[in-house]
Amino acid sequence: MSLNLQTHTEHFTNPLYLESGRILEPYDIAYETYGTLNDDKSNVVVICHALTGSHHCAGTYEGENKPGWWDGLIGPKKAIDTDKYFVICTNVIGSCFGSTGPMSPKHPHQEPYRYKFPVVTIKDMIKAQRILFDRMDIHRVHAIIGGSMGGMQALQFAVHYPIFANKIIAMATTYATQPWAIAFNKVAQEAILKDPDFKQGYYDSEQIKEHGLSGMAIGRMAGHISFLSHESMNSKFGREYKRDDGLYELFGKFQVESYLEYNGYNFTKWFDPLSYLYITKAINIFDLSRGFDSLSEAIKKIQSQLHLISFKNDLLFRNFEMKAIDDILNEIGNKNHTYRDIQSDYGHDAFLVELDKFEEYIKEILSE
Protein backbone atom coordinates (compact mmCIF):
# COMPACT_ATOMS: atom_id res chain seq x y z
CA MET A 1 0.00 0.00 0.00
CA SER A 2 1.16 3.56 -0.50
CA LEU A 3 1.31 6.46 1.90
CA ASN A 4 -0.91 8.53 -0.44
CA LEU A 5 0.67 11.83 0.68
CA GLN A 6 -1.32 14.86 -0.47
CA THR A 7 -0.54 18.51 0.27
CA HIS A 8 -3.26 21.16 0.22
CA THR A 9 -3.86 24.78 1.13
CA GLU A 10 -7.34 25.92 2.08
CA HIS A 11 -8.36 29.59 1.88
CA PHE A 12 -10.90 31.07 4.34
CA THR A 13 -12.62 34.43 3.91
CA ASN A 14 -14.71 34.38 7.09
CA PRO A 15 -13.01 36.10 10.03
CA LEU A 16 -11.23 33.94 12.59
CA TYR A 17 -12.11 35.41 15.99
CA LEU A 18 -9.06 35.13 18.21
CA GLU A 19 -8.79 34.70 21.97
CA SER A 20 -7.22 38.18 22.22
CA GLY A 21 -10.37 39.78 20.79
CA ARG A 22 -8.69 40.49 17.46
CA ILE A 23 -9.62 38.88 14.15
CA LEU A 24 -7.70 37.32 11.31
CA GLU A 25 -9.19 37.55 7.83
CA PRO A 26 -8.73 36.18 5.28
CA TYR A 27 -6.40 33.31 6.19
CA ASP A 28 -4.92 30.13 4.73
CA ILE A 29 -4.24 26.75 6.30
CA ALA A 30 -1.71 24.39 4.74
CA TYR A 31 -2.22 20.72 5.53
CA GLU A 32 -1.25 17.23 4.47
CA THR A 33 -3.25 14.01 4.39
CA TYR A 34 -2.07 10.41 4.24
CA GLY A 35 -4.03 7.23 3.65
CA THR A 36 -7.69 7.12 2.57
CA LEU A 37 -10.82 8.40 4.29
CA ASN A 38 -13.30 5.57 4.81
CA ASP A 39 -17.01 5.85 3.92
CA ASP A 40 -18.31 6.76 7.38
CA LYS A 41 -15.28 9.01 8.10
CA SER A 42 -14.53 7.08 11.27
CA ASN A 43 -10.81 6.53 10.61
CA VAL A 44 -9.44 10.08 10.96
CA VAL A 45 -6.30 10.61 13.03
CA VAL A 46 -5.17 14.21 13.55
CA ILE A 47 -1.47 14.93 14.15
CA CYS A 48 -0.48 18.21 15.85
CA HIS A 49 3.04 19.53 15.28
CA ALA A 50 5.51 21.16 17.68
CA LEU A 51 7.13 24.63 17.56
CA THR A 52 9.31 24.21 14.48
CA GLY A 53 7.37 21.36 12.89
CA SER A 54 4.98 21.69 9.98
CA HIS A 55 2.15 19.86 8.25
CA HIS A 56 4.78 17.62 6.60
CA CYS A 57 4.96 14.86 9.20
CA ALA A 58 5.46 11.80 6.99
CA GLY A 59 6.76 10.71 3.62
CA THR A 60 9.25 12.42 1.35
CA TYR A 61 8.64 15.10 -1.25
CA GLU A 62 9.76 14.42 -4.81
CA GLY A 63 13.38 15.39 -5.30
CA GLU A 64 14.06 15.61 -1.55
CA ASN A 65 15.53 13.03 0.76
CA LYS A 66 14.50 14.40 4.15
CA PRO A 67 11.27 12.74 5.29
CA GLY A 68 8.52 14.32 7.41
CA TRP A 69 9.31 14.84 11.11
CA TRP A 70 7.36 11.77 12.40
CA ASP A 71 7.96 9.56 9.39
CA GLY A 72 9.04 6.63 11.58
CA LEU A 73 5.61 6.59 13.20
CA ILE A 74 3.23 7.30 10.29
CA GLY A 75 2.82 5.17 7.17
CA PRO A 76 1.74 1.75 5.87
CA LYS A 77 2.12 -0.88 8.65
CA LYS A 78 3.66 1.68 11.04
CA ALA A 79 2.19 2.57 14.47
CA ILE A 80 -0.13 5.12 12.85
CA ASP A 81 -1.01 2.86 9.96
CA THR A 82 -2.05 4.73 6.82
CA ASP A 83 -3.53 1.50 5.42
CA LYS A 84 -6.10 1.82 8.24
CA TYR A 85 -6.25 5.51 9.14
CA PHE A 86 -6.75 8.75 7.27
CA VAL A 87 -4.13 11.03 8.82
CA ILE A 88 -4.37 14.84 8.72
CA CYS A 89 -1.66 17.23 9.88
CA THR A 90 -2.17 20.98 9.57
CA ASN A 91 0.38 23.76 9.76
CA VAL A 92 -0.58 26.04 12.66
CA ILE A 93 -1.69 29.64 12.19
CA GLY A 94 1.38 31.85 12.81
CA SER A 95 3.85 29.38 11.28
CA CYS A 96 5.89 29.95 8.12
CA PHE A 97 5.14 26.85 6.05
CA GLY A 98 2.01 27.91 4.18
CA SER A 99 -0.55 28.80 6.85
CA THR A 100 -1.11 32.51 7.48
CA GLY A 101 1.62 33.98 9.67
CA PRO A 102 3.46 37.25 10.34
CA MET A 103 5.21 37.26 6.95
CA SER A 104 2.01 36.53 4.99
CA PRO A 105 0.63 39.39 2.85
CA LYS A 106 -1.87 41.50 4.80
CA HIS A 107 -5.12 42.00 2.89
CA PRO A 108 -5.73 44.21 0.87
CA HIS A 109 -2.25 45.76 0.48
CA GLN A 110 -0.12 42.62 0.04
CA GLU A 111 2.62 43.93 2.35
CA PRO A 112 3.61 41.38 5.02
CA TYR A 113 1.83 41.71 8.38
CA ARG A 114 5.07 41.67 10.40
CA TYR A 115 4.17 43.16 13.82
CA LYS A 116 0.60 43.87 12.70
CA PHE A 117 -0.02 40.13 12.93
CA PRO A 118 -2.12 39.44 16.04
CA VAL A 119 -0.80 37.33 18.90
CA VAL A 120 -2.30 33.86 18.47
CA THR A 121 -2.76 31.22 21.15
CA ILE A 122 -2.83 27.43 21.16
CA LYS A 123 -6.61 27.72 21.43
CA ASP A 124 -6.70 29.87 18.26
CA MET A 125 -4.57 27.28 16.45
CA ILE A 126 -7.00 24.45 17.21
CA LYS A 127 -10.03 26.64 16.45
CA ALA A 128 -8.64 27.24 12.95
CA GLN A 129 -8.10 23.48 12.60
CA ARG A 130 -11.70 22.77 13.62
CA ILE A 131 -12.93 25.21 10.97
CA LEU A 132 -10.79 23.39 8.37
CA PHE A 133 -12.17 20.00 9.47
CA ASP A 134 -15.73 21.36 9.22
CA ARG A 135 -15.01 22.39 5.67
CA MET A 136 -13.71 18.87 4.98
CA ASP A 137 -17.03 17.63 6.43
CA ILE A 138 -15.19 15.90 9.29
CA HIS A 139 -17.05 16.53 12.54
CA ARG A 140 -15.60 13.81 14.72
CA VAL A 141 -12.22 12.06 14.66
CA HIS A 142 -10.87 8.75 15.88
CA ALA A 143 -7.80 10.28 17.55
CA ILE A 144 -5.65 13.37 18.03
CA ILE A 145 -1.93 12.91 18.73
CA GLY A 146 0.79 15.47 19.45
CA GLY A 147 4.04 16.01 21.34
CA SER A 148 5.42 19.17 22.97
CA MET A 149 3.45 22.12 21.49
CA GLY A 150 1.52 19.43 19.59
CA GLY A 151 0.61 17.94 22.97
CA MET A 152 -0.64 21.35 24.11
CA GLN A 153 -2.95 21.40 21.08
CA ALA A 154 -4.13 17.86 21.84
CA LEU A 155 -4.98 18.82 25.45
CA GLN A 156 -6.69 22.01 24.29
CA PHE A 157 -8.84 19.94 21.90
CA ALA A 158 -9.73 17.66 24.83
CA VAL A 159 -10.95 20.60 26.95
CA HIS A 160 -12.53 22.87 24.33
CA TYR A 161 -14.02 20.34 21.92
CA PRO A 162 -14.86 17.54 24.38
CA ILE A 163 -16.77 15.30 21.97
CA PHE A 164 -14.65 15.88 18.87
CA ALA A 165 -12.15 13.03 19.36
CA ASN A 166 -12.65 9.50 20.65
CA LYS A 167 -9.04 9.32 21.84
CA ILE A 168 -6.39 11.90 22.60
CA ILE A 169 -2.70 11.19 23.07
CA ALA A 170 -0.64 14.06 24.54
CA MET A 171 3.11 13.52 24.85
CA ALA A 172 6.05 15.45 26.35
CA THR A 173 3.88 18.42 27.25
CA THR A 174 2.34 20.34 30.16
CA TYR A 175 -0.92 21.87 31.40
CA ALA A 176 0.67 25.35 31.48
CA THR A 177 4.12 26.50 30.38
CA GLN A 178 6.38 26.85 33.41
CA PRO A 179 9.06 29.54 34.10
CA TRP A 180 11.92 27.22 33.07
CA ALA A 181 10.58 26.89 29.50
CA ILE A 182 9.63 30.59 29.32
CA ALA A 183 13.19 31.48 30.35
CA PHE A 184 14.70 29.55 27.41
CA ASN A 185 12.26 31.28 25.06
CA LYS A 186 13.32 34.63 26.53
CA VAL A 187 16.96 34.01 25.56
CA ALA A 188 15.85 33.27 21.99
CA GLN A 189 13.60 36.33 21.84
CA GLU A 190 16.31 38.71 23.10
CA ALA A 191 18.92 37.24 20.76
CA ILE A 192 16.61 37.74 17.76
CA LEU A 193 15.52 41.27 18.71
CA LYS A 194 19.08 42.47 19.34
CA ASP A 195 20.46 41.18 16.04
CA PRO A 196 20.96 44.21 13.74
CA ASP A 197 20.10 42.01 10.72
CA PHE A 198 16.64 41.46 12.22
CA LYS A 199 16.06 45.18 11.43
CA GLN A 200 13.37 45.46 14.13
CA GLY A 201 11.17 43.06 12.21
CA TYR A 202 11.65 44.71 8.83
CA TYR A 203 14.19 42.22 7.48
CA ASP A 204 14.24 40.89 3.94
CA SER A 205 13.24 37.23 4.27
CA GLU A 206 15.12 36.20 1.13
CA GLN A 207 18.35 37.53 2.62
CA ILE A 208 17.75 35.62 5.83
CA LYS A 209 17.11 32.41 3.89
CA GLU A 210 20.47 32.93 2.23
CA HIS A 211 22.63 34.18 5.10
CA GLY A 212 20.74 33.10 8.21
CA LEU A 213 20.29 35.25 11.32
CA SER A 214 22.97 34.85 13.97
CA GLY A 215 20.76 36.12 16.83
CA MET A 216 18.19 33.47 16.08
CA ALA A 217 20.93 30.83 15.81
CA ILE A 218 22.08 31.72 19.34
CA GLY A 219 18.50 31.51 20.63
CA ARG A 220 18.07 28.14 18.95
CA MET A 221 21.27 26.87 20.59
CA ALA A 222 19.74 27.68 23.99
CA GLY A 223 16.60 25.84 22.92
CA HIS A 224 18.62 22.78 21.89
CA ILE A 225 20.15 22.58 25.36
CA SER A 226 16.63 22.26 26.79
CA PHE A 227 15.68 19.55 24.25
CA LEU A 228 18.46 17.20 25.39
CA SER A 229 19.58 16.05 28.84
CA HIS A 230 22.87 15.61 30.73
CA GLU A 231 22.81 11.92 29.87
CA SER A 232 22.02 12.26 26.18
CA MET A 233 24.72 14.93 25.74
CA ASN A 234 27.23 12.67 27.48
CA SER A 235 26.44 9.68 25.31
CA LYS A 236 26.13 11.75 22.12
CA PHE A 237 29.26 13.89 22.50
CA GLY A 238 31.10 13.12 25.74
CA ARG A 239 34.10 15.42 25.97
CA GLU A 240 35.08 14.71 22.38
CA TYR A 241 36.93 17.51 20.65
CA LYS A 242 36.65 18.39 16.97
CA ARG A 243 39.37 16.41 15.17
CA ASP A 244 40.86 19.36 13.32
CA ASP A 245 40.82 21.82 16.25
CA GLY A 246 43.61 22.17 18.80
CA LEU A 247 42.74 21.88 22.50
CA TYR A 248 44.62 25.13 23.24
CA GLU A 249 43.08 27.15 20.40
CA LEU A 250 40.79 29.73 21.99
CA PHE A 251 37.97 28.95 19.55
CA GLY A 252 38.73 25.26 19.21
CA LYS A 253 35.48 23.34 19.63
CA PHE A 254 34.10 20.43 21.55
CA GLN A 255 31.76 18.21 19.52
CA VAL A 256 28.80 19.52 21.53
CA GLU A 257 29.72 23.09 20.51
CA SER A 258 29.90 22.30 16.81
CA TYR A 259 26.59 20.41 17.09
CA LEU A 260 24.91 23.49 18.60
CA GLU A 261 26.47 25.76 15.99
CA TYR A 262 25.49 23.55 13.08
CA ASN A 263 21.89 23.15 14.25
CA GLY A 264 21.53 26.78 15.29
CA TYR A 265 22.82 28.40 12.11
CA ASN A 266 21.24 25.87 9.79
CA PHE A 267 17.85 26.40 11.41
CA THR A 268 17.76 30.13 10.66
CA LYS A 269 17.81 29.49 6.92
CA TRP A 270 14.52 27.60 6.93
CA PHE A 271 12.51 29.04 9.83
CA ASP A 272 11.19 32.60 9.87
CA PRO A 273 12.28 34.73 12.88
CA LEU A 274 8.93 36.52 13.35
CA SER A 275 7.11 33.17 13.25
CA TYR A 276 9.53 31.98 15.92
CA LEU A 277 8.65 34.96 18.13
CA TYR A 278 4.90 34.55 17.63
CA ILE A 279 4.85 30.79 18.21
CA THR A 280 7.07 30.94 21.31
CA LYS A 281 4.66 33.61 22.62
CA ALA A 282 1.75 31.18 22.07
CA ILE A 283 3.69 28.49 23.96
CA ASN A 284 4.57 30.88 26.83
CA ILE A 285 0.98 31.95 27.43
CA PHE A 286 -0.45 28.44 27.08
CA ASP A 287 -2.50 27.59 30.16
CA LEU A 288 -5.22 24.97 30.01
CA SER A 289 -7.02 26.62 32.95
CA ARG A 290 -7.38 30.05 31.30
CA GLY A 291 -11.07 30.95 31.25
CA PHE A 292 -11.85 28.47 34.06
CA ASP A 293 -11.83 28.87 37.84
CA SER A 294 -9.13 26.23 38.17
CA LEU A 295 -7.22 23.58 36.25
CA SER A 296 -9.52 21.01 37.81
CA GLU A 297 -12.59 22.78 36.33
CA ALA A 298 -10.96 22.75 32.89
CA ILE A 299 -10.06 19.07 33.12
CA LYS A 300 -13.62 18.15 34.18
CA LYS A 301 -14.67 19.11 30.63
CA ILE A 302 -12.69 16.23 29.10
CA GLN A 303 -14.81 13.42 27.66
CA SER A 304 -12.40 11.78 25.23
CA GLN A 305 -10.31 8.82 26.27
CA LEU A 306 -7.10 10.60 27.26
CA HIS A 307 -3.60 9.08 27.20
CA LEU A 308 -0.76 11.05 28.77
CA ILE A 309 2.85 10.17 27.98
CA SER A 310 5.84 11.83 29.65
CA PHE A 311 9.56 11.08 29.36
CA LYS A 312 11.59 10.57 32.49
CA ASN A 313 14.43 12.93 31.63
CA ASP A 314 12.52 15.67 29.80
CA LEU A 315 14.00 18.91 31.15
CA LEU A 316 11.67 21.21 29.22
CA PHE A 317 8.30 19.79 30.29
CA ARG A 318 9.02 17.73 33.39
CA ASN A 319 7.30 14.40 33.86
CA PHE A 320 5.65 15.64 37.07
CA GLU A 321 3.80 18.28 35.02
CA MET A 322 2.05 15.45 33.14
CA LYS A 323 1.60 13.54 36.41
CA ALA A 324 -0.26 16.59 37.78
CA ILE A 325 -2.90 16.18 35.04
CA ASP A 326 -3.16 12.47 35.85
CA ASP A 327 -3.58 13.29 39.58
CA ILE A 328 -6.46 15.69 38.86
CA LEU A 329 -8.14 13.15 36.55
CA ASN A 330 -7.92 10.60 39.36
CA GLU A 331 -9.22 13.10 41.93
CA ILE A 332 -12.30 13.93 39.87
CA GLY A 333 -12.96 10.23 39.25
CA ASN A 334 -12.09 10.14 35.54
CA LYS A 335 -11.77 6.43 34.68
CA ASN A 336 -11.20 7.00 30.97
CA HIS A 337 -7.51 7.89 30.96
CA THR A 338 -4.01 6.45 31.28
CA TYR A 339 -0.67 7.95 32.24
CA ARG A 340 2.68 6.47 31.27
CA ASP A 341 6.12 7.83 32.14
CA ILE A 342 8.60 6.43 29.65
CA GLN A 343 12.04 5.45 30.88
CA SER A 344 14.31 7.64 28.76
CA ASP A 345 17.54 9.53 29.23
CA TYR A 346 17.26 11.32 25.91
CA GLY A 347 15.46 14.46 27.10
CA HIS A 348 12.55 16.37 25.62
CA ASP A 349 13.24 15.33 22.02
CA ALA A 350 12.68 11.66 22.94
CA PHE A 351 9.17 11.96 21.46
CA LEU A 352 10.79 12.62 18.05
CA VAL A 353 13.75 10.27 18.39
CA GLU A 354 13.02 7.25 20.59
CA LEU A 355 9.96 6.03 18.70
CA ASP A 356 10.70 2.41 19.58
CA LYS A 357 9.85 3.21 23.22
CA PHE A 358 6.22 4.11 22.53
CA GLU A 359 5.18 3.06 19.01
CA GLU A 360 3.63 -0.24 20.17
CA TYR A 361 1.72 1.61 22.87
CA ILE A 362 0.30 4.09 20.32
CA LYS A 363 -0.66 1.22 18.02
CA GLU A 364 -2.53 -0.44 20.90
CA ILE A 365 -4.37 2.73 21.89
CA LEU A 366 -5.48 3.40 18.31
CA SER A 367 -6.69 -0.13 17.60
CA GLU A 368 -8.57 -0.67 20.89
- Strand percentage: 15-25%
User: Number of DSSP helices?
Assistant: 12
Helix and strand run: EEEEEEEEHEHEHHHHHHHEHEHH
Give the number of domains.
2
Structural class: alpha/beta
The main sheet orders its strands as 1-4-8-5-9-10-11-12
Q: Strand tally, please? A: 12
CATH class of the largest domain: Alpha Beta
**Helix content, binned percent:** 25-40%
- The CATH superfamily of the largest domain is Alpha/Beta hydrolase fold, catalytic domain
Please give the alpha-carbon distance between the first and last residues. Answer: 23 Å
Characterize the largest beta sheet: strand count, sense, and whether it forms a barrel.
8 strands, mixed
Query: Remind me, CATH topology of the largest domain?
Result: Rossmann fold
Keywords:
34% helix; Rossmann fold; 12 helices; Rna Polymerase Sigma Factor, Chain: A; eight-stranded mixed β-sheet; two-stranded antiparallel sheet; alpha/beta; 368 residues
What does this structure look like?
It is built from twelve helices and twelve strands. With 368 residues, the chain is an alpha/beta fold. It folds into two domains: 6-177 and 287-367, Rossmann fold (3-Layer(aba) Sandwich), CATH 3.40.50.1820; 181-281, Orthogonal Bundle (Rna Polymerase Sigma Factor, Chain: A), CATH 1.10.1740. The strands form three sheets. Strands 1-4-8-5-9-10-11-12 form an eight-stranded mixed sheet, sandwiched between helices. Strand 2 (16-17) and strand 3 (23-24) form a beta hairpin. Helix 1 (122-135) crosses helix 2 (149-160), helix 3 runs antiparallel to helix 5 (214-227) and helix 5 packs across helix 7. It starts with 5 loop residues before the first strand and ends with a helix. The model has no long low-confidence stretch (mean pLDDT 97).
